[in-house]
Structure formats: structure tokens, C-alpha cells
Amino acid sequence: MLAGLKEVLMQATRDKRAIAAFNVPNLEMVKAAIQAAEELDVPVILQHAEGHNSLISLEEIGPIMMDYAKRSKVPVVVHLDHGKSLKAIITAIKIGFTSVMIDASDKPFEENILLTKEIVKIAHSSGVDVEAELGHVFTSSLGGGEGREPDDDLIGMNDDIYTDPELAKSFVEQTGVDCLAVAFGTVHGIYLKEPRLDLERVRQIQQKVEIPLVMHGGSGVSKEDYHVAISNGIAKINYYTYANQNGARAIRQAFEKDTKGEYFLENYLAEVTGALKEDYCKALKIFSE
Ligand SMILES: [Zn+2]
């Protein structure tokens, strides 16, 4: 069934667990995410990043995500991830998404507030919840796009990179967002070196803002770090890269299994869906423990 982001995250906070948010830019991922959540009987968030429009457009995948969410046995939030343009946000709301992210984290603090506030007004008037981002979650040069890993010298030295608890408080008060993506050392894509997370910062932010917090770049974080992050206030974990890689590995294995060389595409896609489901189940279990 279709569910709202805020209600699902508030419940997760009470249960001391996090809800997985899977980016699903193809049908195999949509199906596997729903199957995994139903098997474990937990809520799930299906999300589409505006940056993934090059893979499939919001207009194409959005209605499919909505359809699967409505027919699911578990609560499913349908969410726009990293909304950068007003156009994408309005489109998502029109398709029926129950929440949107406005990502103005690359803008100066005051501008981020103004933009986020405006989106909150528009979204809330349609009953749609809003995630915003303060600080900056970097993108790895592997798997996440064209960016690079943050400079070691910058980590902890610059509040524009790691979320500042006091600024977070002011940001949440002024914008009225429902949940906040925070930067504490996670990276989009593949970690090129062992992540060093400032988990204490998450706790400090949570004490100031009292709304659910969101972890971006959830691939490659250790089970222990996930659990500390969750007990410190993370209620939504964005997870994509590792599932993406495991789906690709399944194709390679399917080639090896296909000794007769029949090359039926449906068999290969079934292997992909199976591998994705297994990977999602693993993540869902860790986040709900
Ligand atoms: Zn992100």
C-alpha cells in the first residue's frame, strides 16, 4: 500500500530501526525491492533520483513505481530523490509521489533555506512530505558520477561539508522539512578508502532537530556503523550502488550457467531480479535489526 514518508520514518524512529530507500531506475529493481520488503514484511521506500533521468525518465518509471507501491502488501513510500528542479518536483507530485527531496545543498545556507521553504509550501499543500539536505554528501569517482572523493584536509574543517548541528536546528525550524539528509562522512558510489564516519555528529544533530535523519551513500558502510547511525537518529538509508553491482554480477554468472549458449534474455533478467532481491533482503535485515 502507498504510504507517507513522515509516518513511516516516525514509526521507524520509535522502533529504533531505519527504512531502506532503494533507487529503482529499471523494472528489475522495482520488482526486487517490493519482493524483498514483502518477504521481510517491512516498509520500503522506492525512489527515483532526478540524476537518473538519463537511465529512465521520471515520467516513465514514476507511474510504474506508483503501481507497484499501491499493489504491495507492505507500506511503500514513493519518493523523488535529489530533486534539483521545480519541474521534477511538480512532476513527481502530479504522478502521485508521497514525498520529494529538494536538494539545494550546493547553495549557500540562506539560499538553501529559501528554496527548501518554497518547496515545503508547495508539497505540503498537496499532502506530500519533504526531505532536504544540509552539508554536502560527496560523490565518489566510482559508481556515483563524475565527482571525486572529499579532500582529507577539508573533512571536519568546513561546516559546509559536514552538517553543523546548530545550523541544522535553524534550518529545520525555518523550513519546516519532514526529514533531513545530513553529511557525516558517507559518500555516494563506491568508497575508495575505508569510510570514516562522524557518528557522534549524527547524535548531536538529532538532539537539536528532533526530526528523522537521512543517510545518503549507504553502500559500503559496516553493519556496526549502520547500527550506531540508526541509534543516533538515522531513520532512512539510501542504498543503491552495491545492489547495482550485484545485479551486474548476476548477469556474468548467468552467462557462465548458460553452457548451451541459449541466450534467452528472460532467463538473464530473472537472475538479475533474484540477485537484487537477495541483496535488498540483506540490507533490509541489517536496517531493521
Ligand atoms: Zn544522495
For this entry, give a set of tags.
binds zinc ion; TIM Barrel; 289 residues; 8-stranded parallel β-barrel; alpha/beta; globular; two-stranded parallel ribbon
Please give the structural blueprint:
Layout: H1 5-15, E1 19-23, H2 27-40, E2 44-49, H3 58-71, E3 76-83, H4 86-95, E4 99-102, H5 109-125, E5 129-134, E6 138-139, H6 165-175, E7 179-182, E8 187-188, H7 199-209, E9 213-215, H8 223-231, E10 234-239, H9 241-257, H10 265-288
Parallel strand pairs: 1-2, 1-10, 2-3, 3-4, 4-5, 5-7, 6-8, 7-9, 9-10
Q: How would you characterize the overall build of this protein?
A:
It is built from ten helices and ten strands. 48% of the residues lie in helices and 16% in strands. The longest helix is centred in the C-terminal third of the chain and has 24 residues. The strands form two sheets. The protein has an eight-stranded parallel barrel with strand order 1-2-3-4-5-7-9-10, surrounded by nine helices. The protein has one domain: Aldolase class I (TIM Barrel, Alpha-Beta Barrel), CATH 3.20.20. About 5% of the residues have low confidence. With 289 residues, it is of the alpha/beta class. Bound molecules: zinc ion. Zinc ion binds next to loops.
